[in-house]
Amino acid sequence: MRSIPVTVAALCYVVVVFGVLSFSSNAELDPSFYKNTCPNVSSIVREVVRNVSKKDPRMLASLIRLHFHDCFVLGCDASILLNNTDTPTKIESEQQAAPNDNSIRGLDVVNQIKTAVEKACPGVVSCADILTLAAEISSVLGGGPDWKVPLGRRDGVTASRTLANQNLPSPFSSLDKLKSAFAAQGLNTTDLVALSGAHTFGRARCTFVTSRLYNFSNSGKPDPTLDTTYLQQLRGQCPNGGSGNNLVNFELTSPDTIDNDYYSNLKVKKGLLQSDQELFSTSGADTISIVNTFANNQDAFFANFKASMIKMGNIGVKTGKDGEVRKQCNFINKKSAELDLASVVSKESSQEAMVSSF
Ligand code: HEM
Ligand SMILES: *[C@@H]1O[C@H](CO)[C@@H](O)[C@H](O)[C@H]1NC(C)=O
Ligand SMILES: *[C@@H]1O[C@H](CO)[C@@H](O)[C@H](O)[C@H]1NC(C)=O
Ligand SMILES: *[C@@H]1O[C@H](CO)[C@@H](O)[C@H](O)[C@H]1NC(C)=O
Ligand SMILES: *[C@@H]1O[C@H](CO)[C@@H](O)[C@H](O)[C@H]1NC(C)=O
Ligand SMILES: *[C@@H]1O[C@H](CO)[C@@H](O)[C@H](O)[C@H]1NC(C)=O
């Protein structure tokens, strides 16, 4: 008699445990996550990104960077897209953090993608997945590798300017600091070298380069790890005492395509940022042999870039019932509701005004 309830209890326990386990395996990202709910999502993202990049080829680089700057702060949860708000919760946007301010691009493109995706499948695809898909599509359109993008991320309901300032590495950091910034996100030295290869395209402002050209580490001299011909060229583009807002291509020969020239450039002291050149010029560093491998073998670079992009895309993801799927990428849904309500109220009051004047 007494064994029956025990068995029932044991069964319940088994069901609960398996329920939890199967929930957690459901909570993994999966490239076919939108197979039934938004089967065409990749094509929609691709069409918008392709359209925009025809007029603005740099946008491919900007979109890859946006995904990186999202993932290093509270995980890949589209926190970077949230704007400043006071209500219903206070959000201090990451967009004004030092590494992002006057620097990140593509926020409007993400909104364009979201609008196109919402039209096809309303309320289904997260802004975090849109950022991840846009990064992969940008790699392909930039001549880089393709990969199956794990999907099913949910959007966060908060942002952190503080963590954006803390977690995103500076172009003036030592190699050890770069390594620890990546290690803090679960990314190792190979990931650091492979992902830095994203600096194979796009632009940087002179402000991040000038000290290397005129007064490196307050030595009164240029950075000794900078090729002298390249130095003269960069001085032409970034005058001493200039505003710092001039743009320089990361790469001389193929400024808008993804290839392994970034690594060959490092071998001849033609890395643009201090943080780039350190990967090769730090004496005795374990990154040197990785740079050599990628410089000699583009397939090896592509294979590692792919793997590291997927790894980066998995950082701190919210899945299942965590977070939400934002309706508008710049606001949490509670804020969007508040804004919708406000627009309904203002429409009603203008109708009332019309009625009373009638
Ligand atoms: C290793 C540490 C890194 C540092 C210190 C760093 C720093 C920078 C800086 C200073 C710029 C120029 C920003 C400006 O001029 O406003 C830049 C641009 C860029 N970064 Fe990085 N970055 C790093 C890693 C990465 C990673 C991991 C990726 C992507 C996987 C990435 C992708 C890009 C791209 C594509 C651009 C050009 C963006 C454009 O033209 O709009 N960076 N980075
Ligand atoms: C998928 O999206 C692309 C790009 O927007 C469009 O050309 C195509 O017709 C769509 N296919 C389906 C089945 O909806
Ligand atoms: C892309 O550009 C084509 C041609 O200009 C246009 O017909 C199409 O509507 C655009 N698609 C999107 C999603 O913007
Ligand atoms: C969000 O903030 C950005 C500036 O960071 C601004 O350009 C954009 O218009 C804002 N978006 C909305 C929907 O208010
Ligand atoms: C970095 O991590 C990848 C797997 O994510 C692994 O294959 C690789 O060997 C690791 N590299 C180092 C230097 O630890
Ligand atoms: C380099 O920077 C240091 C510290 O700011 C300054 O004292 C020195 O005069 C500068 N040298 C040159 C040549 O600009």
Keywords:
binds protoporphyrin IX containing FE, 15 helices, mainly alpha, single chain, disordered N terminus, Peroxidase, domain 1, 2 strands, 358 residues, two-stranded antiparallel sheet, binds 2-acetamido-2-deoxy-beta-D-glucopyranose
Quick summary:
52% of the residues lie in helices and 2% in strands.
Question: Which SSEs are present, and which pair or pack?
Answer:
Blueprint: H1 3-26, H2 41-55, H3 59-71, H4 107-120, H5 127-141, H6 161-167, H7 175-183, H8 189-196, E1 203-205, H9 210-214, H10 228-237, E2 247-249, H11 261-267, H12 274-281, H13 287-296, H14 298-313, H15 333-357
The structure holds protoporphyrin IX containing FE and 2-acetamido-2-deoxy-beta-D-glucopyranose (NAG) (5 copies).
One 2-acetamido-2-deoxy-beta-D-glucopyranose binds at residues 83, 95, 330.
Active site: 69
InterPro entries: Haem_peroxidase, Haem_peroxidase_sf, Peroxidase_pln, Peroxidases_heam-ligand_BS, Secretory_peroxidase
Protein name: Peroxidase
Word description of this protein:
Mean pLDDT is 92; it is low at 1-26 and 353-358. This protein has helices at 3-26, 41-55, 59-71, 107-120, 127-141, 161-167, 175-183, 189-196, 210-214, 228-237, 261-267, 274-281, 287-296, 298-313, 333-357; strands at 203-205, 247-249. A two-stranded antiparallel sheet has the order 1-2. It is mainly α. The chain has a domain at 41-202 and 250-335: Peroxidase, domain 1 (Orthogonal Bundle). Helix 2 packs antiparallel against helix 4 (107-120), helix 11 (261-267) packs across helix 13 and helix 13 packs across helix 14 (298-313). It is globular. It binds protoporphyrin IX containing FE and 2-acetamido-2-deoxy-beta-D-glucopyranose (5 copies).
